[in-house]
Amino acid sequence: MKNNKYKILVLSDLKKSVSTTLKSSVSLAKMIDAEIALFHVKKHIDIVDRDNQFTAMRTLNEEHNNTKKNMDALVNRFSKEYNVNIKSNYAFGKIKEEIQKQIKSYNPDIIVLGQRDTTPFKFIGDSITRFILKNFKGIIMIASNENALEPNEKMTLGVLNTSNKVFETEFTKDLITHTKTPVKSFRILNSQKEQSDVLSLNEEKMVEYVFDKNANSMTTLSSYLLKNNINLLCVDRAENETKTPLKEVVNKLNVSLLVSEA
User: Whole-prediction pTM value?
Assistant: First the structure.
């Protein structure tokens, strides 16, 4: 039996954005030869809020049946449409504890999260997102709710404030083969001396845009991402004085983000 190179864990609240998140996950899986597992967790208090024990147990059983039915229908639809095998699992309990158990059990290479339904500007404030960024050291994709990656189609890849090392991993090399060329690099520089540290990939494969850091730099960047039809923006997780803070990137850019390993 063929073994996939990577394992993707998709965390979802099963709300309206789940189809977009799962579609982007399928697209990524096909590009890098990965298997997919969809996981949903809900707090008991959100299901059972009655004092009557008999009624509470009946409500919990109904929720189990409905959750399994909905997840099976979703997974079967995507599996059939895109010819992929998607595992699914769910749990009721303390959300962070159940997620931690699932990560330990499944041992994914990549975790996929969807943006909040409200607006991406408050997404970094979501405790689950912060929890994953803090506790999971592998690659994280924060999938845009509006512009899903399209399975079986090449994407337009961008990289933000990064160096050549991002292209040296086997994962990125697999990703690049499914990317339209040239790759687009975007840099927000604090000073002129940083100009000497520009990304130097093959010029035929890379186009670089350089911006001065100011109050409008993220607005300008967002506009350029839109003009260049960027589907996925690679972001370095490393934090230092020369990097645009990850929190600011997540808060202000409405594009799917691929956050590097810790």
Answer: 0.87
